[in-house]
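Q: Could you fold this chain for me?
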Amino acid sequence: MPQTRWQIIPFGWTVQDDGTVRAEMPQGALLLKDSFSQAGELNATVVVHRAVTNPTYWKTVGITLWQDDRHHWRLNLVEAPENLQYRHTAELHELYGGTWLAGNEPATRLTVKQSFSLPDWSWEYGKPYCLRLIWNAQTIRGEIYDAQNTLCWAYEWALDNPKAVRAGYLGLTCNAFDATFSQIETRNTVPAEPPRPEQKPRPAYKVAHVGRKVRQATGFFRVEEIDGVWWFIDPEGRLFFALGTDHTSYFVHWCEKLGYAPYHENMKRRHGSEQAWAQETLQRLKSWNFNILAANHSSYLRHQGLAYIDNILGMGQGFAAIDDLVKQVHWTGFPNVFSPRWQQWCDWIAYQRCAPLRDDPWLIGYFLDNELEWFGKDYKPWGIAIEALKRARGHDSRVALAQLLRDRYRGDVQAFNRAWDARIRDFDDIAHGEQPPTIRTKAAEEDGIAFTRLAAELYFRTCAEAIRKHDPNHLVLGCRFAGEAPPILDIAGKYCDVVSINTYPRIDLRAGCVLDWEERLREYYRQSRRPLMITEWSFPALDSGLPCKHGAGMRVDTQQQRAECFRIFQSAVFHLPFMVGSNFFMWVDEPALGISSTFPEDSNYGLVNEQGEPYKILVQTATELQAKVYAMHTESVRYRTRSPQPPPVSKPAFPRRRWNIPSQATLAWQVDLQNTNRQPFSGWIGIDLPEHPMAQQQSGEWRCVSMDGKAVRFHIEPLFRQRLWLYVQNVPPGRTWSGLVLFVPARQERRPQDYTIAADFQLKSPNFDLLFGNERAPIRTIYWQGQRIGSYTVLVQQSLSQMQWVPPNRHEGVQLVGTPFGHYLRGWLTHRDGSAITEVNQQTGVFAAQQARPQSYRVEWEMEVREDLLQPMLLVRMRRLQNLSAIPLRVEAVYHYAQSQLHGDGRDDQPAGVPNYYLNAGAWSHTQAGLFYGSMPFESEKWKCTFWKDPGGGQHPDLWQDVKQEVKPGETIALDGGWVALLIGRGDFGKGDWANLTVQVQSLSGVLSGVQWLRRR
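A: Sure. Below is the predicted structure, expressed as structure tokens.
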């Protein structure tokens, strides 16, 4: 069958001179010209060579009666996904109105006339099968024969529903297979007139939530910087800031465990049809002041008052399923942009997706992809080069890398070997050698980044040129980077009209600001020199009842907090002059049981829940804030260097006050407390006093008075007289309390007592029983209210010939004193001649053999046993670290390390809570024991926290502060991480005891202190 007999030949189909057809992961159906028929027979012999895509996909190959891409029949050989043991079956089914298996749906139900299969029949790779499709106005029948002409399988439907597809073009289909078709024949066909595509008149463009007119109408969207602020300009020349939400679809979200999409089923019962659902959804979106339809939206929502961005093209992700450079394991992968087929692929996608929309004024533009794996599997800026070097000899990417390196080193192999610490004979060894060099030097990393930039050039240029070839009227909106990008943003900006980024930052709810985010976005703009659009962001809340265990975004406890995060983040976006849009993630919550085994997201992302009920406070916040977008974004010209969002809470500068200081007082300090909490504060607050020899060496009288001269309840620890506790009452939110601390010396010298505890000391208090020990000092066992909880130590991460995490193996000079609130301890935790924790294998749970001897050190450490609080707890702090070894000590980080034994030996204890919790805290829990044990820093911005278990069951309660410092022999450095609370209680994460404890930590840490010398002599 010559090539001229076929209609347009889509990507992946090749028609040979002898009439056979090769399908290599093709796109679309291959249809015969002039074959539209209302009755007849189609035969084709197919050999399936291999599956060529993700093991989680259903794969099919077969023949078709094709009316259009939403209405057709397919007779297929089928391979099930991996979780169904790749079962080989066959099928004959109808797609009607975009719904597969339409014959089983109520509105399009058909009657099965015959179903036949040989016992245990299963088709096989490499063997020919003849597929035969026979139909007329009353029935459609599919038959499959083997090479011996034995009927293996047959299925027949009665076309007894007037909606059924009865006529169409004849053709071939293939999805995720490499296959060959031959002996393609049609018989007894009865020609019919193809239906003319219904030409619905497109409504005139009219979107309500737009700004003032500033330019002449052009009929299409564009971007422009006006008076220092970037905007979309709509087709009528008006300012436009894009406000959308992803996945506004009738069909989301599929749940593998349920076998259906719960939201979709609920909406079917509520509305009966997608069209009816769309009308309610449109009314909601517009009333909440959204003005665009974002990624993955229902087409029934279009052209009714909201502009739209076409659903993600998937140019890179789609090609990565055919020919990858980074494999699609659990995510998007990265395409082999060095393949000779890459340009053809992009052209085909643009032809299919963009050409039909080129004249639509409602369309803003196109997203190329979503979250491609630009950093490779190693998550390095040169990760694309690492992936290329893993490829087989002669792979396109290795050939391209070899040529790049030959050019960069001007053909000098020796220069390359020195730079890479390699031993190749020729640059061809990189392209074709059995063992290509690896990236392990700084120069190699820089070369790897150059290769990533080459890949980016090919990716963005090819995608953009293909789109603009088939649709010159609409915008290229970037590839939705996953939060960060390697050094390629200038290349993205060269080819894209807008650079799009998915970002899930953390919010400081107390300060009302987005953390560690704004400057990064400003840098992206400086590099790309194009406007930015935030294309995903969200903050799931635990009170939704969903697990929120999987997926991005900072978790909060309540919808009130979630709405506050929405307000803080969206306000920050509006106030950045280089932003042109913000798409909230997303329309509806995910299923509680997760989406699938490979994509188990189960979080509260929705504006509405699965019943279609809006989260009222969230949508109210969105409505009120988004109404102000044009005023706020216009105002952003004032914020070229810094938005008006408040900075994170920091220690204030307290004014020096006038005091009446008695003449006999030799030392005087002004002590200030500022309550940054939202509630009044009452209780004991600890303050560090400056070191002074007189206070330590002489006895005398201490006094403390407030501004009004009243005596204040206080306590000074007798060890070093460097820790003061004040009891204050009802300090209002936002207010400052000031006091005067005096020392009036006596004539005699101070004779301090020795409060040093023994190595195996046991400290008992009303709620705690602490057993001290030297092994992993200081506390080998913690009991709380009679329950065994676990242990506590510190770790010093040392960079030796391998990374080691080194615990102290003795406590020295730790002293204990009583306080009005419980107990206070201070002393040194020392490591000498001991073992260390090494890196654990993430696949096996086996720790690496210790290759080097840890260096000796000691850490000055403190603990407060706070029995005065509503929920008693332990507070710990590291003050200083000293290198006790004879060589420099490279300290990477220091850890507070809380290992649990809540139930037996702790093997069944599990990490509690959810990832990326808004409080920088972690914990272990055991459901049967009903207990939890964790840690939470006062100064959360200084610490990183993750509690996890390795595959061997080992606990890793990682709460660490980066140090990144080399300490000279004998040198002592300060550790400024502040206090950390050890949290112990009963019940569930986020509720009850946990909520009380975390509120207490926030309350205590929300009182900021300052000390000023007034007199010292």
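A (continued): The chain is about 15% helix and 35% strand.
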